[in-house]
Amino acid sequence: MADTNKENQGISTPFTTDDRSHYFDFKAFFIHILRHIGLFLFLMVLFGCAGFFITFIPSFKTYYNYSEDTSVTQRSAVTNEYPYIYTAAKVIYIPSGDSDFIMESALALFKSGTMMTSLKDEFFNEALSQEYKLRNRMVTYNYRLQSALESPYSPGDFYSVFDCYISPSYTLTPGGHNGITSFDLEKRHFLILSAASGDEELSLSMCERAAELLIKETTALIGDFDYKLINRATDIALPSPESGLIPITSIGSVISTERPSLSLIIKSSLKSSLWGIVIAGFAAVFAGFIIEVTSEKLISVSEVRQFPCPVLTTADLKKKKVLLHPVNKVIDLLEGNERACDDQETAVRVSENYIKKYLSGDHSFTRVLITGTLPSERLQNIRTTFVKCSTLNIDYVAAPFVSYTPETVELADEHTLVLLTEQLNFSTKGNYDFEIRQFGLLKATIVGTILFK
């Protein structure tokens, strides 16, 4: 590579360092971005389309497959989607002064053989069916492990869904009865009876039937007593997950009751596409910077000029891309490059004029050695063009890269003028620097370089 210490210059990268200062070169950074504009456009289209379709496809499938249901059916689907447990409850209010005795009698009779047998005969099969439906939903939403489905539903499990207890904190008396005073609080007047299942109607039916049987059993034991049956709102709750399980409770899991609009789908897809373009921009700048910094190839005219060998002329022989042509013009303007020759013959004529001016001095050169890192066929083609256009009385010879064959070393003597030929994005910095140093060791004179873009 070029001796940057001697020339006080470095390779053209966004971070320029010399012996005088350390600074961030915004112009070099901008040139770096423009030089990789093709990569940016490719990534922008790729990430933009990916962001758009990642959002659009699932949303449009929901829109396309949507079927209009009745409000009742749809509401039922939403209600039954999660493994909700419905706990129906009734309050037995006993206003008499013997409420403690009556309640203790009721609690003693609760879950008696006669009462539970009657409830089991009426509701066990339906409770069994609802229990397995509930277990399936619990497994689906990660509240239970799959093994929960394998354990049988026993009469003991059925009996456990019923509960009965005295509530000292419940003080809301029904209409037609006196309110609870501070003196009355010493006695208990409210007995709470509940039944739970995965179906709301089943819970209400079981609770109501259990209340009837309990009152019937208590009356048979102690005789008639004054009471009032109060309905309570059904409690709806999700079960507690097993240890180590994280239940699925995000709103995205709930069945949608409305069809998404196309305008909303397109807006959200475009928003995702914009995020993709932003990510593409950062990715292109980063990837381009890494490629440029780590690349060994000569990528710009300004970079070639940093080596201790003059560039006689540049030639742009490749077919110009219409899309990127304005970008290349801007890069040339920022780098201060002269207008490149449009064909090889023009570049040869310009180079020969430099050779002619050099030979006009007191020099005893008899030939011009055309060499470089280009393929041998290209070198021979350039030599043929020189012979065709030459107006000088001098021989033109072509030889491969200096380390490829001893012929090049033999030709490089004190009577030979060396003309290097290189091509951007083909010739490497290491090979170009090696040529310059080797011909210096051979005491050969290098007139300059023809640079092809």
Description:
This protein is an alpha/beta fold and 453 residues long. It folds into three domains: 4-24 and 297-452, Rossmann fold; 48-66 and 259-293, no CATH class; 71-242, no CATH class. It contains 15 helices and twelve strands. It has helices spanning 4-7, 26-35, 37-64, 71-81, 99-109, 113-140, 155-159, 200-222, 262-294, 301-304, 325-335, 344-359, 376-389, 406-411, 429-441, and strands at residues 15-17, 22-24, 85-93, 162-166, 190-197, 228-231, 235-237, 311-315, 367-372, 395-398, 416-423, 445-452. The strands form three sheets. Strands 3, 4, 5, 6 and 7 form a five-stranded antiparallel β-sheet that branches. Strands 8-12-11-9-10 form a five-stranded parallel β-sheet, sandwiched between helices.
CATH topology of the largest domain: Rossmann fold
Would you identify the CATH H-level superfamily of the largest domain?
Answer: P-loop containing nucleotide triphosphate hydrolases
**N- and C-termini, Cα separation:** 20 Å
The gyration radius over C-alpha positions equals 46 Å
- The ordered string of helix (H) and strand (E) elements is HEEHHHEHHHEEHEEHHEHHEHEHEHE
The main sheet comes to: 5 strands, antiparallel
Mean pLDDT across every amino acid position: 77
CATH architecture type of the largest domain: 3-Layer(aba) Sandwich
Q: Number of helical runs?
A: 15
Secondary structure tally: strands: 12
Shape designation: rod-shaped
Low-pLDDT ranges = 1-24, 69-80, 251-257
> What's the CATH C level of the largest domain?
Alpha Beta
Quaternary state reads single chain
